[in-house]
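Question (not urgent): is this output format expected?
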Amino acid sequence: VQSGIYELPREDDLSEVEEEIHESVYNKNVRPTQSTYNNALAVCGHPHKGPMKENAVDEALDIHKRFLDAKFESTSETYLSLFKCLNKNLHKDSPRRILVGKDLLELSKTSGIVLDSSVVKALKEVDSSLHREYLKDLDSASMTEE
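Got this back:
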């Protein structure tokens, strides 16, 4: 995990890998790399069962905060994992899903990240109105550049 390179696990192996990643992100004796953080976020994006659904979202948000506190810059990969986590673990009509999605979208805008097509698709799954807002803002930005 230190290198940040591993194959994503099958669902039955997930808890062992989650423990390993959790340890690498939260161990005070190890400085996680950007890849380690992004891999930890990707694991949070897997579907979880029962109360673990909310925990996966809380964990992803905590990991993302640590990621930013460590002065790493979010990438499309980072936002893809965060949006997938919302999509897989919070009900489609969940107010929290929409609020967190909106906060993440605002954060991506303020940091100047242009989301790639896979992230835009995941954003649409979070909430279609957030998706429309992003496309409208993107279109407005491209018109002002011309």
